[in-house]
Here is the input.
Amino acid sequence: MVQLQISVYIAVSLDGFIARENGSLDWLSVVQGTGSEDYGYRAFMDTIDTVVIGRNTYDTVLGFGEWPFKGKRVIVLTSRPLAPKHGETTHSGELQPLLQALGKLSARRIYLDGGTSVRRGLAEGLVDDLILSWIPILLGRGRPLFGGDIPESGWRLSTAKSFPSGVVQASYRRSPE
Amino acid sequence: MVQLQISVYIAVSLDGFIARENGSLDWLSVVQGTGSEDYGYRAFMDTIDTVVIGRNTYDTVLGFGEWPFKGKRVIVLTSRPLAPKHGETTHSGELQPLLQALGKLSARRIYLDGGTSVRRGLAEGLVDDLILSWIPILLGRGRPLFGGDIPESGWRLSTAKSFPSGVVQASYRRSPE
Here is the structure.
């Protein structure tokens, strides 16, 4: 079978939230200065050919104005209708069948984005790389990154770095069983 | 008023747990090698004169055999009876009155230990320093560090480092309002 590499790159508060309860990402502004620091996002995206993204995150991204996934194959995880604006397709249900289909379409490096999608990927044991960027804030409440039916798993630290803004970013690779 | 400094030094899984659901800390063994690396614990403890510790964590610590708080004033947060073995005293209810009393007893640097205690300290806005050591494991389930009634708060990164075991440790200082 084709070897796919599935990566998660996500910002999280110190207490594990990826958005406020209403979905707002305004709190990320504490680490967004002049825009010259992108926390390795562009370099990461350059390695990616396919984006698998949850519906909520997709809708949020559409609101950004500029489409950040130009030149990438994009699959939105949703069971609701969607009017593709940039050639997106949709998928619902488990990730494994989607990945098998993507492998046949010569996908190799997949970016799994959005809380529900990440949890599903972890629940199915499909995530190879986990890049966490901890934002120096306690939100207290919000939408959690983890939780649900994620099984225990071990990870190996690849790199760790910190930024003047106070972001701590660590990259982990799934440990072999 | 006397200036107390209240610090939290705690290990947490990548998904924010400090113990399994049954209280077990066995998963910390993935980063405990020959025992030569203590992740700065001794150096941190050398700065501490007083330990304020939750009852569950205290009971766990008693089970370790050796008492790790020799020479420190220790206050156990509990409303249940306790037979002091090392001169411990107890306190129940809010932390603020305890801290005022401790200030009069010339306490200066306080180590706040245990999930419930840390959450209470954060809820009361009393924590000055937060030292988090992320263990490279997803537990999936367990006793969470955060949650409950913690208000939003901003933090400044002081130091960040990683260890060969994969531990990422970051020290934060509470941002002024």
Observations:
- The CA atoms of residues 129 and 173 of chain B lie 5 Å apart.
- The longest strand of chain B covers residues 153-162.
- Helices of chain B lie at 41-46, 55-62, 95-104, 115-123.
